[in-house]
Amino acid sequence: MRFVLVSAVSATLVAPLLLSGCTGGEPLHRFVFDPAEITPQTTTLTLGAGEKLSFWNSLDVTYQAGTTLGFVININTESGIPVEVLCDALDPTSQFMSSTFTSGNTIKKSWKLAQMNCGFGPVEKSQSFKITVVPKAEGTTPLQASRIVLELKN
């Protein structure tokens, strides 16, 4: 008779590892915006040669059809040549733990984490970058938000 040893690993241990792999890993920086008073936020990061940034968001918003929400990301390099990246926050490439409800012309979207269809890099050489971010909504009626977060990941 042959015995086979099977090791069961708890789903509570495996799930975070799988989700972390699918969501680009841990953030390099997290911008958490106060929906009542949106102001630009800044951080400085150092990227090594060949590294790039991906942009992820976490949202809970209600808006009218035709409204846009984006992140305006200004990246200043050591060489002094600024780069502006515009990311559409409402149309990500992938979402995790998300819901969308539509009632007439009103749309409510919420997700724990979503990768946006924008990025920066790869960079040619190791250097520091000053990154300033501000969310920007445009439409005929104000966008209502209870959560607006932007994460920077490699």
Notable characteristics:
154 residues; mainly beta; five-stranded antiparallel beta sheet; four-stranded antiparallel beta sheet; 1 helix; 8% helix; disordered N terminus
Structure characterization notes:
The chain is mostly beta strands. Helices cover 8% and strands 56% of the residues. It is built from one helix and nine strands. The chain has one helix at 11-22; strands spanning 29-33, 41-47, 53-64, 68-77, 83-88, 94-103, 106-120, 127-138, 144-153. The strands form two sheets. The protein has a five-stranded antiparallel β-sheet with strand order 1-9-3-7-6, with no helix packed on it. Strands 2-8-4-5 form a four-stranded antiparallel β-sheet, with no helix packed on it. The protein is elongated. Residues 1-21 have low confidence and may be disordered.
Short characterization:
A hairpin with a 2-residue loop joins β6 (94-103) and β7 (106-120). This protein has one helix at residues 11-22, and strands spanning 29-33, 41-47, 53-64, 68-77, 83-88, 94-103, 106-120, 127-138, 144-153. With 154 residues, it is mainly beta.
